[in-house]
Design brief:
Strand content: 15-25%
Distance between the termini: 46 Å
Structural class: alpha/beta
Number of helices: 11
Helix content: 25-40%
Number of strands: 19
Shape: globular
């Protein structure tokens, strides 16, 4: 179903890494406990050598010789895992405006607050102004701003579906026909976006949800898949979920809080089509003030995650950060852990996205893989909250965050 877009995504990721690693230093992590992948056994007292943005050696202390000119980071008492992916973020806050010319220090500082101090080395931005964020990606690749590898998805909305939470003065690409969807998808991809995000359902406040016609969604999906790009979707209700399935969308960008569960037929079709899910559970703790309503929303979305995971679907970690200001990832981990094991949570940030997007050199800490790693203060397989206790974040062989 997804065709060649996986190979294109891999090419885009590899190109960004190559730009950064041109000036990479040699870094050695020494003394920590390593989980090389989500299903690997612990390797205590590990040594990882990174050269020119690539992991050049992995083994136990004493078996690996560190180069004499390497920067050595003592990881004693800490845990090392592969770099984290966040598959649902937004660079829409005021700080990202005019990112091509804004002071690098301010951008790096906010990037740290929002993403890098939480271990993210690759992110999918699912809606922002490309005139701001495409230049931001270039500055990160050039080493001017310390940040993650960024992949972008251009948004398409149904006609009359301007969501209540987006200011009315913001002009949105609303489409009424398959032909308009085709044009917008082509234009987004020609601009340099890496994928498409469809609002198959738009929240209108106290008015009914505006859903996207499946034929319109399918037109955009066809364009994206023909160019080898993935499509995400934002459903708001059962109708929006059905459109996701009928149109052949690749990733559900969120769970659907208005629905108590997925139907058996939906789950079967998700599995048959290889659809992935980004739960964004903590998002639903921020949208209403009534704790009873919040608890109901969380219960519904956690149940959907449980159904999806038990059905064998691919779960991708994501928080909708940037739309929310809940930067701390602790709550997301705790909510996911209600139904997923610690290893499944780790997989959602590492091996799952690397496999789904066919990023063949990401998601594991192995020789020849990209030097994207996270050093944690504690063992996350003993306490899921330790995923949020980041000591250092390394992308393409550069330390982009280190705990003071």
């Amino acid at each position: 179903m997804i065709g060649t877009w996986l190979r294109v995504t891999l090419f885009l990721i590899g190109s960004a890494v190559a730009a950064v690693t041109a000036q990479a230093e040699t870094i050695v992590l020494r003394g920590g406990t390593l989980y090389a992948s989500a299903d690997a056994e612990a390797l205590p007292d590990a040594v990882i050598v990174m050269t020119d943005g690539i992991i050049s050696a992995v083994g136990k202390s004493g078996d690996i010789q560190a180069p004499p000119d390497a920067r050595v980071i003592d990881c004693s008492g800490k845990t090392i895992v592969a770099g984290f992916w966040n598959s649902h973020v937004h660079f829409t806050q005021n700080v990202w405006r005019n990112s091509g010319a804004a002071p690098a220090a301010a951008l790096t500082q906010h990037m740290q607050e929002m993403l890098t101090r939480w271990g993210f080395t690759t992110v999918w931005d699912l809606g922002s102004d490309p005139s701001d964020t495409l230049p931001l990606r270039k500055r990160i690749a050039a080493g001017e701003v310390a940040g993650p590898n960024i992949l972008f998805a251009g948004n398409i909305f149904p006609k009359g579906g301007h969501p209540a939470y987006i200011p009315r003065e913001v002009q949105l690409p609303e489409v009424a026909t398959p032909e308009e969807a085709t044009k917008w998808a082509r234009d987004w991809l020609a601009m340099g976006e890496d994928g498409i995000k469809l609002f198959t359902g738009a929240f209108m406040g106290d008015k009914p949800v505006v859903n996207m016609d499946p034929a319109i969604a399918k037109a955009a999906v066809d364009v994206a898949h023909a160019q080898g790009r993935p499509v995400f979707a934002h459903p708001q209700n059962k109708v929006g979920v059905e459109t996701v399935i009928q149109a052949g969308v690749d990733v559900l960008a969120r769970t659907t809080p208005g629905e108590p569960s997925y139907t058996g037929d939906q789950l079967a079709r998700f599995k048959a089509q290889g659809t992935a899910l980004v739960p964004t559970l903590s998002l639903f703790t921020t949208v209403v003030l009534d704790p009873n309503v919040t608890n109901r929303l969380v219960a519904s979305t956690v149940n959907q995650l449980k159904q999806f995971s038990e059905n064998g679907g691919t779960v991708l970690f994501g928080t909708d950060v940037g739309f929310t200001t809940l930067y701390d990832t602790t709550q997301e981990f705790q909510l996911m852990h209600r139904v997923l094991s610690e290893r499944q949570v780790l997989a959602s940030m590492t091996t799952n996205p690397a496999g789904f997007f066919k990023a063949a050199r990401k998601g594991r800490v192995e020789q020849g893989f990209d030097a994207d790693l996270v050093v944690l203060d504690g063992d996350p397989l003993g306490d899921v909250g330790n995923f949020a206790k980041v000591s250092a974040t390394i992308r393409a062989g550069h330390v982009i965050y280190q705990k003071p």
